[in-house]
Amino acid sequence: MSLFVIIIKNFVIVFLTAVQFAMLARAILSWFPMNSNKLMDFLYAVTEPFIYPVRMLFDKMNWFSGMPIDISFLVSYLLITIVLIILPQV
Fold it and tell me: Which structural domain, as residue segments, surrounds residue 25?
């Protein structure tokens, strides 16, 4: 395997791991009532591109519409986890 592919693969792994940590921070901070601040704005800006497509798919299919929790967040986190499990073995 070429060095370029290995570097790209490792970059994607580090990037997705950072996104997962940002998602965890977003979930934990969402429990606390706070006004809009720079940290929450940053976490939303980083994580929303990964959550939004799943949320739109669920809205389009009318799945989980009455749920009190954001299932699209959990599904997005699980999809990233699956990619992180499969990617090192490719």
Answer: 3-89
